[in-house]
What we know:
Layout: E1 2-6, E2 9-13, H1 22-44, H2 48-64
Amino acid sequence: xxxxxxxxxLHVTISSDVSGGAEAFGELLADLFEHASRMxxxxxxxxxxxCRDLMLQDFLRRVDSPKASVExxxxxxx
Length: 78
């Protein structure tokens, strides 16, 4: 997985060769959530619980209303 920001937009690529399935990807997201919440809590000097709650609530809002501009597909095999 690669993530980068350019021109004020987030760009993401995920290899279709990644092992595991949807559940394993959920584990990856949970681990990323923990690392990011600890980093933001330390950087912004806020309690970890508050940072975790802010991130989770924003995530849930975005899951309920995904952006129409998000695109994705598997590449056509040659």
